[in-house]
């Protein structure tokens, strides 16, 4: 600690915030130091993000947008105008958030970190070219440019096709019997059939007996003929009507079955439609490039014996080693070692000629073009060493942040939020920006305690370069490093939003209202009653688990107990816990895997995600105890992607509410049934906004905005629906209530009351029932899922699987979550979670520690047993940190 940190006066240039009211903030006034590490703490929902991102970052972005041309504003994803009276002294802000997904299938670690251009330059300027092959430009090595992409698959690496087999799974059916399974369902499919009747095709002969020519036309035609359709007429009657010139019922346009699948997949808005047609698409590695995405000429160029696709597939830590070896004084291209002497001689002769030419020609061409020089020239060697030195320097912070196991070609949709944020953080280090404020969202997420020091060094590095660093964090190790601490609370939502403390960290010890104080200062800690370890009710045993870096892993978990799976980042925790375990156990139990793939809306990434999910998880469950009959995954994925989904609908409690309204005398008199009170179906909802409560307003030159619906004023319902009252409140009034308010309001209505009690119990009493799912944080979504599970009568026969459930949670929230998980295990259920918070791990019955390293160096069980056993293990990277918690 330096003296500056204890002395407010030494922080000179302040950021001044007055009247901040974004979301739940209570007219916040705050002065923050610049050029310092400022950490924002508080329980989940207290308002940390509303202050750091919703107010400070949003205000910085708004000012930036005001300074650019109006048309550019449209292109930038605007964070919105914050509700704040004044913000002064704010430097330009760079936000590094944890958004998952997005980026698209063509975005990967290389493009995200901008290392792609450096690597392409390396291959273009310093690569080893086959004899006689002209040199290539950097762009020729990119799958994302027309010059570089494999002409066969256009740089995707896979080819997608729709085949007769995929579209017509059962050729013994007739067209009338829906032989073409890929056709749209219901009316639209029938329409295609009726058009074929008008076109004279036979719809009553089994598909396999139709002439090849007809089958090909129906499936593959690119023509879109329009004909008159006679609804309800048989094929014979249709032909007669056509001959007699009877006017058709309507005009229909035929679309080839293949064209329909491809277009629907590319354009459908609805994820379920997309998903339906995606099952008729087949994909396989591109036969031309074998999945390497770029053209053959570019793949023929090597660097240290690797083509650019192979290079991009190596772990970053290995690339750093190669790059460092190239910078050595006596380095020679490894390709040169295998060349026969006469070729080497020729190369060297050419090289020295080129050097002379370059020298002599210096007056015409100040910088000799190394792309024209032979493989062994001095210029080329110099270029290789300079570019390799750059590469090594750029890779260092990525390895430091525990990301050395990632490869350049790893696609962004498969990265976790924490991996993404740390990659962006490492990338920022080479941008050499100064005088900005970095706003970060829990950068420690997913990071093993072993790697926290490196993170902290990097945050200090940003500060020392003359930047301000604002961090929302829950890791006590990071909080301890703060120059300045802002604690928000005391609770969540309405009961939060106040600044409880702003100053140097030690001062928080005086603030009794703060939930953070109990965890930061040992003397204020709440003593925890020691727990008895549970006795395993049998063992769930898996053998030969193979997925990502898990290669034939054998592992067992105690049933009826709480197990924590630990290991450094990249050791294989997610691969085991969230990817392999649920699939294998469900398979064994005969439970359907269900909707495991979430669609992003981007056709390419969706296909890749589907491929990935179908990708072989291999292994065998060799023993399932009686106590495991069902698998439930409780993750932080959003509970819905539309504002139509909310807490009330997701937990099912809204069904009960609607029934209460339908049972009132007024509803009975008017003949309103329960469906009338739904905003998701036509009937009682507002027709203008179709029950969304808001309408999109398109503004010229500006991003579209959502405004409250002018007809229902945001209530989502028709006036007539709102006239039906239960205990003097309308159904819209109920949706506007917080869980706490509703809990009081529904006193005596057992099923509704019970659901609400559980939601309060997991700390969500502050959420509004109608709060759209899209506004919930990952942690909130996870607790809504947990509550939905808890409200079911506990059957004690379920395997609950959680991946880093405490990510994004304040220690106080983690404790509460943990006590619910303990409750599930007490009731006989089995709980298995990947977890990195050693406070939480110490409370488990059993620990499985993966490692020893990350990526190919991981994927094995290093230690397994009680937290005490693992803490004592000599080879476990987790042991030293767990020791501090098991006492
Ligand atoms: P924290 O970052 O401390 O977890 P947030 O700032 O995300 O808390 O949330 C503070 C409160 O504001 C919570 O009650 C949350 O539900 C609410 N909230 C967050 N985002 C929105 C939003 N976009 N619209 C309305 N309310 C929101
Ligand atoms: P952890 O959860 O312990 O951080 P992961 O299971 O995420 O580790 O990663 C283990 C290894 O598997 C790493 O080498 C990682 O790069 C790789 N991996 C994880 N998920 C994927 C994926 N979806 N596609 C390809 N590789 C993956
Ligand atoms: Zn290809
Ligand atoms: Zn409306």
UniProtKB/TrEMBL annotation:
Domain ABC transporter, first and last residues per copy: 533-877
Keyword Ion transport attached: no
InterPro entries to which the protein is assigned, alphabetical: ABC_transporter-like_ATP-bd, ABC_transporter-like_CS, P-loop_NTPase, UvrA_DNA-bd
GO molecular function terms listed in the Swiss-Prot or TrEMBL record: ATP binding; ATP hydrolysis activity; DNA binding; nuclease activity; zinc ion binding
GO BP: any one term: DNA repair
Zinc-finger keyword on record: yes
GO CC, any one term: cytoplasm
Principal location listed in the UniProt entry: cytoplasm
Keywords carried by this UniProt record: ATP-binding, Cytoplasm, DNA damage, DNA excision, DNA repair, DNA-binding, Excision nuclease, Metal-binding, Nucleotide-binding, Repeat, Zinc, Zinc-finger
Family, similarity comment: Belongs to the ABC transporter superfamily. UvrA family.
Protein name: UvrABC system protein A
Organism: Kocuria tytonicola
Lineage: Bacteria, Bacillati, Actinomycetota, Actinomycetes, Micrococcales
